[in-house]
Specification:
It is a single chain. With about 80 residues, the chain is α+β, with helices and mostly antiparallel strands. It contains two helices and five strands. It is flat, with a radius of gyration of 12 Å.
Length: about 80
C-alpha cells in the first residue's frame, strides 16, 4: 500500500464506513508497519482509534479473546 492509497483510505473510505454504521474497520498500514483499528462510529467519524505495531497483538471487538499478531498480518 502506498502513502497515497493510505491517505485515500483514511480520508474517503473510513468516513464512509463510519457513516454507514460499520462498527469496526481495520486499516493495514504497510509503510508504517502497523494495523490501525477504527471503531465506535458516531456522526461519520470513528470515536476510537488504536494502532498496533510489529511485536504487538490486536483483537477485533467482536472476538476480544482471539488476538492476532501484527507481524503475521503484515507478512
Amino acid at each position: 500500500m502506498t502513502d497515497s492509497s493510505l491517505q485515500y483510505d483514511r480520508r474517503r473510505k473510513l468516513p464512509r464506513y463510519a457513516a454507514a454504521g460499520i462498527q469496526e474497520t481495520w486499516l493495514v498500514n504497510l509503510p508504517g508497519e502497523a494495523v490501525e483499528m477504527y471503531s465506535h462510529p458516531h456522526e461519520g467519524e470513528s470515536r476510537d482509534v488504536q494502532a498496533a505495531r510489529r511485536g504487538e497483538t490486536i483483537a477485533a471487538l467482536a472476538f476480544p479473546d482471539l488476538p492476532l499478531r501484527v507481524g503475521e498480518i503484515l507478512g
